[in-house]
From TrEMBL:
<dbReference type="GO" id="GO:0016410">
    <property type="term" value="F:N-acyltransferase activity"/>
</dbReference>
<dbReference type="GO" id="GO:0016020">
    <property type="term" value="C:membrane"/>
</dbReference>
<protein>
    <recommendedName>
        <fullName>UDP-3-O-acylglucosamine N-acyltransferase</fullName>
        <ecNumber>2.3.1.191</ecNumber>
    </recommendedName>
</protein>
<dbReference type="GO" id="GO:0103118">
    <property type="term" value="F:UDP-3-O-[(3R)-3-hydroxyacyl]-glucosamine N-acyltransferase activity"/>
</dbReference>
<dbReference type="InterPro" id="IPR007691">
    <property type="entry name" value="LpxD"/>
</dbReference>
<dbReference type="Pfam" id="PF00132">
    <property type="entry name" value="Hexapep"/>
</dbReference>
<keyword id="KW-0443">Lipid metabolism</keyword>
<comment type="function">
    <text>Catalyzes the N-acylation of UDP-3-O-acylglucosamine using 3-hydroxyacyl-ACP as the acyl donor. Is involved in the biosynthesis of lipid A, a phosphorylated glycolipid that anchors the lipopolysaccharide to the outer membrane of the cell.</text>
</comment>
<comment type="similarity">
    <text>Belongs to the transferase hexapeptide repeat family. LpxD subfamily.</text>
</comment>
<comment type="pathway">
    <text>Bacterial outer membrane biogenesis; LPS lipid A biosynthesis.</text>
</comment>
<keyword id="KW-0677">Repeat</keyword>
<feature type="active site" description="Proton acceptor">
    <location>
        <position position="245"/>
    </location>
</feature>
<keyword id="KW-0012">Acyltransferase</keyword>
<dbReference type="InterPro" id="IPR011004">
    <property type="entry name" value="Trimer_LpxA-like_sf"/>
</dbReference>
<dbReference type="InterPro" id="IPR001451">
    <property type="entry name" value="Hexapep"/>
</dbReference>
<dbReference type="InterPro" id="IPR020573">
    <property type="entry name" value="UDP_GlcNAc_AcTrfase_non-rep"/>
</dbReference>
<feature type="domain" description="UDP-3-O-[3-hydroxymyristoyl] glucosamine N-acyltransferase non-repeat region">
    <location>
        <begin position="24"/>
        <end position="94"/>
    </location>
</feature>
Length: 337
């Protein structure tokens, strides 16, 4: 178990620390304000929990400078003061809660082609299949029942949880996490329709996933038809998301559960898609756009705009439309009653 002093926390987080009455305490973890004890660090991210600060047993509290001004003279806790308490909480949490794995080494029960290159520090669980020419980087962990196709590459410090499929010719960067059931590199939905048949178009591209990407359980990233499908660094994809062939997603995006993105769509950087957004093919979504839940996107979305509805429209227009519709419904109900 990791134990850190308040001075350790200060150095690691690069935050201001005041009120060092608890300097000798060794902190062992993180807990909410109403549950923390003196050996735990707590946090104030939402102002509605401000009153809990005065009653908490936490040894230290992560908070903003503005919040600290409200109570720093009234509490005996150490205060870890920062510009973004949520980010600081995440970084400190990573110190206390590192992933552990119940197996180390390369299992004799894995099926590994002789031409595959596996770093000696990697962990390969029993019943993994690794195809010809595949490469696994340092400290990466591949859980049971994963399939790594021929000539695919996995970078350093990655985790592939059980039942992940990484098909042939796909590339994953460093520090990526693929949760159970993820399929990377399945065939794109490409067919040419004739009068009496649907002719399959070979999907000869791959998938390129950059560093620090996380993909949720049972999500699918299809391989490109001719060129690669791409996911930019630090993009986070939720469970049950479908990304079609030749989609290009930028950096630092958040894509929530049950989103579907059709083929050859381009998504900019720092885009947020809420749950069940549907995006048609060959559209462009600008940087920092935000798409609200269940939006149906059928045309290009400008940068830094919020859109909602199906078909989607600028959010103010969408909410005005809903308000008008609700007013009409109420008036109709009154007349009918």
């Amino acid at each position: 178990m990791t134990n850190l002093s308040i001075n350790d926390i200060s150095k690691i987080s690069n935050c201001e620390v005041i009120n060092l009455n608890s300097e000798d305490i060794k902190f062992s973890g993180i807990a909410p304000l109403d549950r923390a004890d003196k050996n735990q660090i707590s946090f104030l991210i939402n102002d509605k929990y401000l009153n809990d600060v005065y009653h908490t047993n936490a040894g230290a509290i992560i908070c903003s400078k503005k919040a600290a001004e409200l109570f720093k003279e009234k509490v005996a806790n150490c205060l870890i003061i920062c510009d973004n308490p949520h980010v600081t909480l995440a970084k400190i949490s990573q110190i206390f809660f590192k992933p552990t794995h119940p197996f180390n080494g390369i299992s004799d029960h894995a099926i590994i082609d002789k031409s595959a290159e596996i770093h000696p520090s990697a962990t390969i669980f029993p019943f993994v299949f690794i195809g010809p020419g595949a490469r696994i980087g340092a400290h990466s962990v591949i859980y049971s029942n994963c399939f790594i196709g021929a000539a695919s590459t996995i970078g350093e410090d990655c985790i592939l949880y059980p039942n992940v499929v990484l098909r042939e010719g796909c590339r994953i960067g460093n520090r990526c996490i693929l949760n159970p059931g993820v399929v990377v590199g399945g065939d794109g939905f490409g067919f040419a329709a004739d009068i009496n048949e649907n002719v399959k178009i070979p999907q000869i591209g791959g998938v390129f996933i950059e560093d620090d990407v996380e993909i949720g359980a049972n999500s699918t990233i299809d391989r490109g038809a001719m060129s690669d499908t791409k996911i930019g660094r630090q993009t986070k994809i939720d469970n049950l998301v479908m990304v079609a062939h030749n989609v290009v997603i930028g950096e630092l995006c958040f894509i929530a559960g049950q989103v579907g993105i059709a083929g050859s769509t381009t998504v900019g950087n720092k885009v947020v898609m809420a749950g069940q957004v549907g995006v048609s093919g060959h559209v462009k979504i600008g940087d920092k756009a935000m798409l609200t839940a269940q939006s149906g996107i059928s045309k290009n979305i400008p940068s830094e705009q919020i859109w909602g509805g199906s078909p989607a429209r600028p959010f103010k227009e969408y909410t005005a439309h809903l308000a008008t519709l609700n007013k009409i419904v109420k008036q109709t109900n009154k007349k009918s009653s």
